[in-house]
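Structure first, sequence second, as always.
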């Protein structure tokens, strides 16, 4: 079922925050005493931010790119998320941020992968499709998370 949906998709939109990555102010991260030492730090508006790559995030993007045009569709700000994509070296250039909802190409043959049902419903309206693959949001502490690997295996 899932595989067929993906085979017919012209475009696959993938959410960023909590789906592929987790970003936060460095100060907040330090207050958490986390064991995750894989974060990438970057400067943003005179603050330091840290961002983490979810296990199998790059693999999912590369897998989707083999099946259809693949774009990030995030509710975060375009410029900030561009920086996240760059510091984590995510293999994708196409990006729509919260200021780009009106620019998203309308296509019924699209699929959205997202962790947040409420934000996803806004994105689906912008895209003009109802096809949503909901994934569990990622807690950046969970280094053994296999949610994206499980999805790759299904598609
Ligand atoms: Mg999200």
């Amino acid at each position: 079922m899932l595989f067929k949906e993906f085979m017919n998709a012209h475009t696959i939109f993938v959410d960023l925050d909590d789906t592929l990555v987790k970003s936060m102010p460095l100060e907040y991260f330090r207050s958490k005493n986390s064991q995750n030492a894989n974060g990438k730090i970057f400067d943003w508006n005179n603050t330091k931010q840290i961002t983490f790559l979810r296990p199998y995030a790059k693999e999912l993007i590369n897998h989707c790119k083999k099946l259809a045009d693949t774009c990030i569709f995030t509710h975060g700000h375009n410029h900030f998320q561009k920086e996240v994509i760059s510091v984590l070296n995510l293999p994708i250039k196409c990006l729509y941020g919260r200021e780009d909802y009106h620019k998203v190409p309308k296509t019924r043959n699209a699929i959205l992968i997202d962790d947040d049902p409420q934000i996803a419903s806004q994105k689906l309206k912008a895209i003009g499709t109802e096809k949503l693959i909901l994934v569990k949001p990622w807690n950046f502490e969970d280094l053994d998370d296999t949610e994206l690997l499980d999805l790759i295996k299904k598609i």
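Margin note: The chain has six helices and eight strands.
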